[in-house]
Amino acid sequence: MSGELFAFLVLALLAILGGILMLNLTKVIHMLLSLVLTFLAIAGLYVMLSAEFVAIAQVLIYSGAVTIIMIFGIMLTRHNDEQKNQGNLTRNIIVGAGVVLFFITMYISINQVSFGDQATDLHVENTKQIGVELYSKYVIPFELMSVVLLVALVGAIILAKRDDEEEAEQK
Amino acid sequence: MSSLPVNAYLLLALVLFCIGLFGALTKKNTVIVLISIELMLNAVNINLVAFSKYGINPGITGQIFSLFTITVAAAEAAVGLAILIALYRNRSTVQIDEMNTMKH
Amino acid sequence: MLENAWLIPLFPLLSFLLLIFLGNQWREKSSFVGIGFTGISFVLSVIVLFVQMTNGSGGAEAAWLTIGSIEFRVGVVVNPLNALMLVIVSLVSFLVHIYSKSYMHDDARITTFYSYLGLFTFAMLALVISPNLLQLYIFWELVGVGSFLLIGFYFYKEEAKAAAKKAFIMTRIGDIGLLIGMILLFWQVGSLEFNEIFTAVRDGEVAEGLLTLIAILIFIGAVGKSGQFPLHTWLPDAMEGPTPVSALIHAATMVAAGVYLVATLFPVFESSPAAMTVVAVTGGFTAIFAATIGLVQKDIKRVLAYSTVSQLGYMMMALGAAGYVAGVFHLMTHAFFKALLFLAAGSVIHAVHTQNIEKMGGLWKKMRITGPVFLIGTLAISGVPLFSGFFSKDEILLATWYDGRYGLFTLGLIAAFFTAFYMFRLFFMVFTGDSRSTVTEVQESPRSMTYPMITLAVLAIFSGYINTPWFGTFLGDWLIGDSEFLPFEHHEGPVWIMLAASLIAFAGIGLAYLIYYKKSLQRDFLTSHMPNTYTLVFNKYFIDEFYQYTIEYGARAVSYLGSFIEKYIVEVIVAAVTGVVKSVGSLGSRLQSGQVQTYGAVAFVGLAILVFLVVWTGGYL
Description:
Helix content of chain A: over 70%
Order of helices and strands of chain B: HHH
Number of strands of chain A: 0
Number of domains of chain A: 2
Largest sheet of chain A: none
Strand content of chain B: under 5%
Number of helices of chain A: 6
CATH topology of chain B: Helix Hairpins
Shape of chain A: extended
Radius of gyration of chain B: 17 Å
Structural class of chain A: mainly alpha
Radius of gyration of chain A: 21 Å
CATH superfamily of the largest domain in chain A: NADH-ubiquinone/plastoquinone oxidoreductase chain 6, subunit NuoJ
CATH topology of the largest domain in chain A: Four Helix Bundle (Hemerythrin (Met), subunit A)
Strand content of chain A: under 5%
Number of domains of chain B: 1
CATH architecture of chain B: Orthogonal Bundle
Oligomer: heterotrimer
Distance between the termini of chain B: 59 Å
CATH class of the largest domain in chain A: Mainly Alpha
CATH architecture of the largest domain in chain A: Up-down Bundle
Structural class of chain B: mainly alpha
């Protein structure tokens, strides 16, 4: 067994473990933390795939920012909320069956995939490559992305704040 | 260099995607639904990064698009949370099955 | 003049409408309205009769509606038969109107009574001047409605209600036959005009077998209306109505409608020997059958009712034996003497307040007018020589003899014997002997009741002389007259038939005299010897019971089956249909829950299935 395969198996198991924990834990905060495990495992996989920059970004944004935002969300609403009933059993079964069907379908498709050689130079100055590419080829999407972020920022503030004013007006 | 086929990564991504999908469609807590969607996006990212290394046209483009996805996901998480807070203020619940105003 | 004959039925209609809409407060005054309008009708009828005699037949017609090449017409036609019927109906109706003024004096609903009488008279008068079958059928049904209303006049009495329903349903059964016959005739001939039907029949346009079927179906209609066996059971029950109504409907007019129908369509019947035989045999059988029942009844009106059935059978027998004139002649004389008998019976009932003849007796001395007129009616119906019934009965017997129906001839003679016997039994029990009545003060009826009876008595004596073998066959010549469809051959009968008929009548009278007047024969002389036969006859041969056990219970069984099918098959299917629709609907509304997750789940499952199919089929879906 090569080291790469071993690393992959460990990371993949961690990622799937995090997902399954997310599905089965009862406390919302625990679910969230189990997903952090998944995100970190995925970051490890990125490293294996010669994408160090993306891995770092993954750790920073997902394991850091998004998780923190979600924790804020939980704390601002019902922080010790527990997922007691798992909802409609019938629907769970139907959705589960759909998911399994989807999985089987995709699995058949994936098994038929076989690609050619791998690029070998991705890990060489990975960040530089991304930077060059971003600012040369993808500069317009990059700028658009900044606009999206700005809009999201403003929108989030407005959404979260407007009700305060209305409540104040009502009072 | 590697004996590990692209199929292994795709399979893992599929498993995570299915977990995320199931969570998004069955969990009652809105926060969990949101985070499940994040998980699905992550599964897609794995695919993008895997293809950037093992695809038909391997190259850095896949990584760049995964970065874009991460950005959008972060923005989505922020907006989603803002909506959640607003909703919670109005209806003092985060249970998704109690939000049924689309019925009317 | 004759084209204005439609005015005649209009006056009773006017009387009906006036009384039903405006007459609420008029009470007794309403009788004058009824009498007046009917009187006008009567006068007009007499005028029409004379005009017809001098100027010949006539009428008027107008197109009613045109469907393709077929035209339905309405109008009036006055031929000898119709003119005669007009006079009979309007006269009897007029007299009954007058009679009812006193008879119904105390009834709170006298206005309603007179309005019904008007409706009935209107329908009957219109019926007899119809120039085509369709119009005839309309008024035929209207007559049925009038009779229904009048029989059920005392609707608070259970028996009257039941009798009215029974009369309506029983005649309805016959009407179905008439309707089918009409439709068949229309199918074959393409018209319902009498003249066109007769022309087509004479020219042999209708196949022999089908013609027989049509004639028999139409005869079934007549059977229902005229109370012939086996649809006769409603007629005795119809005696639950007021007595004037019995006189009007069940003696002179409505029941005569069946005979009139057969007489009007005589050319159709005549073309089919088989149908003629059916008519004759049914009539003959009914005559003897009803006469035997009449022998033992105890209710004065029921005896008369069965005698009516019997006499109607006589008429049918005459018609069936090609004795057109004989049938119509007897129809006329019977109308007079039977109306007389009913009115006299009404007068008796009015006096003693019972209908049971066992509780009457000795009324001859107390009712100086009713008694003699009743006797006249009895003599007339018994066929005593020189009274009207004698001539018409003789004519009928002659017709059957000449038609070669010797069996029916014998039946007719026996029925005549029975008739004489039971009529005089009735007479002796009511008017002679000791009074068995609980009413001590028996009074003669007022004049408005006696005058109509006297008028009818005169007619009952003399109406026979218009067609006798002695003074000429005026009626017969006139009836056949200018018609191109009616063959006429008067038979100069052997004298012995007339003698035999007279002897038979006297024998019947004599037997009744011996048993019920002289009491030299025991009353239970026969009944004690044949108790079973007596029970059978007294219960009217159990015909009602037979109908109850076969038809009613049969219908009930079918109904139960039907309701079972309805309940457990049809309704289950309906419930299944609604259930499917409902569940689909509720499923749809459950999907429309507003739950985003559900929407997503549904969309995703659908997508998964689609994707699966695409992959499964290799992308060639």
